Amino acid sequence: MKSRFIRKILGGLSFTSALFVFQACYGTPQDFGNDLFVEGQVKAKISGLPIKGIKVSVADNLQYVTTDEDGKFSFYTEMIQHLALKFQDTDSTLNGLYAGKDTVLADVTENVYLDIILEEK
Amino acid sequence: MISSLKRVAFRKFRESEVQLHELNYLFWECTTRCNLNCRHCGSDCSKDYSYPDMPVDDFLAAVDTIKERPENFTVVFTGGEPLLRKDLESCGRALRKRGLRWSLVTNGHLYDEQRHISLLNAGLGALTISLDGLEASHNWLRNNDKSFTKVIHAIELAASSGRLSFDVVTCVNQKNISELAQIRDLLVSANVKSWRLFTIIPIGRAAGDQELQLTDDQFAELMDFIALQRKGKQIDVKFSCEGYVGKYEPLVRDSYFFCRAGINIGSVLIDGSISACPNIDRSFTQGNIYRDNLYEVWLNKFLPFRNREWTKKGKCASCKDYKDCWGNGFHNWHGDMNDVLVCHKEKIEHAVKNQH
After folding, report:
1. Is the pLDDT of residue B160 over 70?
2. What are phi and psi of A75, to 5 degrees?
3. Domain that holds residue A100
4. What is the nearest CA distance from A65 to chain B, expressed in angstroms?
5. What is the 3-state secondary structure (H, E, C) of B25-63?
6. Hey, is the C-beta of A81 within 8 angstroms of any chain B C-beta?
């Protein structure tokens, strides 16, 4: 603990706070961890059954995942306020037909769990 | 006066880092397979296809030995070309479940939209992509006529992500040194925020290829270029931490030269060897994850990295800058270790003499 304190003092005196955020010669920059983990499950409103193949995408972003056999999904994405997610049935009648849904996460924390219900068409 | 005080404080800081010996940065040489056949290969990695890719579980078991992980601890996937592995994402997710961050160094050839998305979904946090010139010079170094087009697409994808800490690296050589301003403009137009410049160490395939090495005058020209760019705001340009650059030290980086290999940086290499940066001579291996506990090796070994007095020979023996340089980047000690392979400060001094 003491040595870490001394390190901070010396780093500050040499005006080299960047030293705490170094990267190796052939390595990558430091990751500042600015993301959150989103997971959840998508179910049908009437049957209550999980829905496979629903596209879960992040608005204004290339990222998406597709729900698995259990209607489950998970991904990491950029931590932004009012994160907007879209749930879309993109496989036509393959796993049933469902209306899409948009969700905005008002209070974004490091881990988010979502239960999503889609209406049958 | 202030500059001298900063130097003294920095030297003390560096000593405290050696004492702390905190493992902040762990390379994983996850494959030595590669999809390119670059002219400079062997200068920064061991290209040996005889080793199979290390199983993810073997690597994770080694990571799990690390009992004290600093907040900014990062695993960096390197190779070979890491994207040849299909299981990077599952390894990345397993690391994130453990509360760890991970990042990736790639040549960009396989970095298409689908892979970009799947890597982000798996919690990729930082990324480095190599661009080694305008189209002709990049493809020349990479020995592939499609590489430039693919890497530009990869760079555009990476730069479009608000999530990634991302930079582009360029190995400066005879073919591309006259293109640096154009490369900068290209990167700025692709919305790249950070650009790191390297030279090529004369080892491996690069050892006998004069076109890959900068002359002393060209090296000084590179330093001047970086120093000038750092006065602007368009893009963060820096020289890599490959070596001590004397009078240019305060001008080409965010902080003074400090080779942290084996001080804060470790690696698990393709055969399980435990070392520091993957481009370091393999004779410095400190253990093997298949025999030893990674964290115990980190805590109890790494002595040649933590005490560099042994590098005080050859050019370094009588150098007045030794206390700031400590024998240059550790990867500059290869083969018989009788002398440092490259002295960047000497190159600059020669260039100054040439000017007079």
Report:
1. yes
2. -165, 160
3. 35-118
4. 8
5. EEEEECCCCCCCCCCCCCCCCCCCCCCCCCCHHHHHHHH
6. no
> What pLDDT, on the 0 to 100 scale, is given for residue A3?
63
- CA pair distance B29, B278, nearest whole angstrom: 7
Tokens 């990345």, residue? B92
For residue B106, the domain's CATH number is 3.20.20.70
Chain B residue with Cα closest to A64: B117
Specify if B332 maps to a domain.
no
Helix (H) or strand (E) holding B16: helix B2-20
| Cβ atoms within 10 Å, residue B144 | 18
| Contact state of B255 with A16 under an 8 Å Cβ cutoff | yes
Contact A33, B96 (CB under 8 A): no
- Residue B317 inside a domain? The answer is no
Lowest mean pLDDT among A16-25, B135-144, B219-228: A16-25
Q: What is the CA radius of gyration of chain A?
A: 21
B307's tokens:
């005490």
Mean pLDDT computed over B156-183: 97
ipTM score: 0.92
B78-95 pLDDT, tens digit per residue, is: 999 999 999 999 999 999
CB nearest B13 (choices: A11, A32, A37): A11
Encoded tokens for B304:
């040649």
Q: Is the pLDDT of residue B231 over 60?
A: yes
What is the DSSP annotation of B139-183? HHHHT-TTHHHHHHHHHHHHHT-SS-EEEEEEE--TTTGGGHHHH
Asked if A25's CB is within 8 angstroms of B16's CB, the reply is no
In this prediction, residue A8 has a pLDDT band, given cuts at 50, 70 and 90, of low
In a domain, A18, yes or no: no
| Residue A75 host element (H or E) | strand A72-78
User: Hey, CA dihedral for B23, B87, A29, B278, is it positive or negative?
Assistant: positive
Does B124 reside within a domain?
Answer: yes
Q: What domain range is B228 assigned to?
A: 2-308
Q: Which pLDDT score, from 0 to 100, does residue B155 have?
A: 98
Q: In this complex, which of B44, B116, B126 lies closest to A30 when CB atoms are compared?
A: B126
Q: What is the pLDDT of residue B48?
A: 58
Q: Residue B244 and residue B30: Cα distance in Å, rounded?
A: 29
**Taking all residues of chain B, what is their mean pLDDT, rounded to a whole number?**
94
How many structural domains comprise chain A?
A: 1
Q: What is the pTM of this model?
A: 0.94
Q: Is the pLDDT of residue B202 over 90?
A: no
Surface-to-core class of residue A52, CB atoms within 10 Å of its CB (0-12 exposed, 13-18 middle, 19+ buried): middle
Residues 6+ apart with CB under 8 A from B282: B46, B269, B273, B275
Q: Assess contact for B43 and B202: CB atoms under 8 A.
A: yes
